[in-house]
Every structure is written in structure tokens, then in C-alpha cells.
Amino acid sequence: MEHEIKDITILGAGPTGLFALFYCGMRGASAQVIDALSQPGGQLTALYPEKYIFDVAGLPKILAKDLVRSLEEQAAQFKEPVHLNQHVTGLEERDGHFVLVTKTDRFPTRSLVLAAGIGAFSPRRLPQAVAEPWYGKGIEDRVLDPEQFRGKRVIIIGGGDSAFDWAQQLRGTAQAISLVHRSDRFRAHASTIADVLAACETGATKLFAFHELQDIHATGGAIDSVTLRHVKSKELLQLDCDVILPMLGFVSDLGPLNEWGLHLVNDEIVVNSQTETGHAGIYAAGDICSYPGKLKLIATGFAEAATAVNQAVHFVHPDKKVAPGHSSNMAVFGQKDD
Ligand SMILES: Cc1cc2nc3c(=O)[nH]c(=O)nc-3n(C[C@H](O)[C@H](O)[C@H](O)COP(=O)(O)OP(=O)(O)OC[C@H]3O[C@@H](n4cnc5c(N)ncnc54)[C@H](O)[C@@H]3O)c2cc1C
Question: CATH second-level architecture of 125-248?
Fold first, then answer.
């Protein structure tokens, strides 16, 4: 599918990309943001949705997932599209504009803000070879709709935030939940761990610490049980289940960005103080960009997003100034005409 051309396309819907999308709207530029993940928020959504963040200006304390929700809400004022589940693999230049290419879609654009963080995330796969044929047929590494697990016997593998979050959130939807982890050390939010352990006390959830997947059994092409192995005693046990959810975190890959002729050092795009990459019309902001003194923080990503978008606006529409003026005085927000 070929999408309509936009003034600015943002690659990456992390905090930097979401703020950039808002900023494009504020500056009157048409825009879109593209992300490989099924949800916006980048590292905040994928790696630490339940953690509190304490160093976002003006917000003494905010859950990562709530900050993402606010950023989405702020950007949504301008009704520009957020394209999810779109892993960008190619960049083409055609008739004086760019085209970002994914497996299924093409996104033409007059300028680009690369806010790709530490690269495209994909869920870490189970290391056991026996698991591979079952992906998409009983092994699901993304929960897009909790309702798909209604009445199912679910095994969740992992000991981090997403394993505990889903052990908590599928309670009452799944028929049975078993949490399997290689150790008894968990890396999730303390209150979620406490909640899940309390559910284990009542029998609503089963916990198999020090266990790992050994084998998968099926009847009629559908998973009906697994064999778990105790990592210390090597004892085996069989557990009935319909679905396995490996929640093992994510691996990230800069992949195609390495091949776009940009100046990369240590997987970071070198930019100047205007966030210019050296390729006219392409800017970089957030964790992906590098310059002397760069800090990889949400706060700096926000500032770089503003710089990049203001530069891109001027690049696409030379009659528009780089300096944005003050939002408190802008007609676009119903304030005194600027
Ligand atoms: C556990 C943890 C705690 C943290 N706590 C804090 C904190 O308290 N305060 C703070 O300021 N910072 C914190 N950080 C750092 C902060 O999360 C990052 O600085 C921030 O996420 C960077 O935002 P970003 O938008 O630049 O990149 P990211 O959040 O990495 O988002 C980049 C997005 O680009 C997408 N993408 C990349 N390549 C492609 C591609 N080819 N196609 C499609 N999509 C692509 C990715 O899928 C991703 O969604 C923490 C980080 C971690 C891991």
C-alpha cells in the first residue's frame, strides 16, 4: 500500500517520536509516525511500562505507560497517523522526496526525523528448538487482545515486567495461569510481583520457579501440555496448557539504518546542533542520535524532537521560520493569533 505523501515522517514511536508528531502538528506540518511494535512508546512500553519515571520536567512521578498515554493524547490533537506493526527496512529517494519502505507499505515523505532509539524491537524467542514450529500456533509472544486467551490454560514464561503484567492482567480471563521462570529472582515492579505471588497463595495462579521448558505435546495439531524441567534437580513435570506466552524481553536491531549512508558511530547517528545528519532533509533525535555531551534521556529526546521538527519544517517550507514562537500564543491552540 502506498500512503499519501507527508511533510515529515518520523521513524520510531518512542517518547521522542510521539513528541515529534505533536510538534509537527503544532507547526502546521503534515506528518506520520511509523513503528515496528504493536504499541507506541518505544522502550517505555516494551521494557518498563510499570516503572515510575521521576525526571520528566513538570511531572514529579509518572508511570512509563501513563507518560506514553499522555504523549499519544497530546499528539492525537492533530489527527496524524501512527502506523504500528510496520518494520521499516528500506529508504528510497525518488523525484526529490524520500520513501520509507516496509514489508507491506510505502510511506512517501518530504523530510525525515529518525527517532529509532536503539533500533527496532522484536520479542526474544524461546531458545528451545522444540518451540520454534509452534510460534503462531499456540506460542504467542505478543498479546494484542487479552480476549484471545479467554477460557484458555496459559503458561507464561519469564520473570520480568511483561511476564508479571500479563500474569496479573489475564487473571479472570484465562481459565488457568502458570508462571514459569528459570530462577526465583524477578525483575518486575514490586507491587505487581506482590499481587501475582498473592494470587499464587490462593491458587488463582501457579508459580514454577527454577523451571524451564523441556518439551511441547499436542493433540490434533493443538498444544495440550508441556514438560517442564527443574533447572537444579532436573526433575520433569507435565503441565496441561493451551497457550504458551514467552515474555522474555526484546532484542533490538538497527538493521537497515546501517545501510542508508548516514554517519553512524557505535550504532548512533552523528548529528550537529541542528540535529542534521549530513543528508539534506534527514534529521535524527532521541537515543539514536549522537553529539558531544549527548545524554540518553527522555528529556533530551523531547528537546531534540523540537529542534529536528523545527528544522524539517523550514527545510520543507523555506518560508516558515525555524523558530516556532510560543505555544502559549498560538492560534492553533485557540490562543491569540500569532
Ligand atoms: C529500564 C529503563 C529505565 C529507564 N528510565 C528512564 C528514566 O527514568 N528517565 C529517562 O529520562 N530515561 C529513562 N530511560 C531511557 C529512555 O527510555 C530512553 O532515553 C527513551 O526511551 C529514548 O526514546 P526514543 O524515542 O529516542 O527511543 P525508543 O524509546 O528506543 O523508541 C524507538 C522506537 O523506534 C522503533 N524503531 C526503531 N527502528 C525501527 C525500524 N527500522 N522500523 C520501525 N520502527 C523502528 C522502535 O520499535 C521503538 O519503538 C530508561 C530506559 C530503560 C531501558
Answer: 3-Layer(bba) Sandwich (3.50)
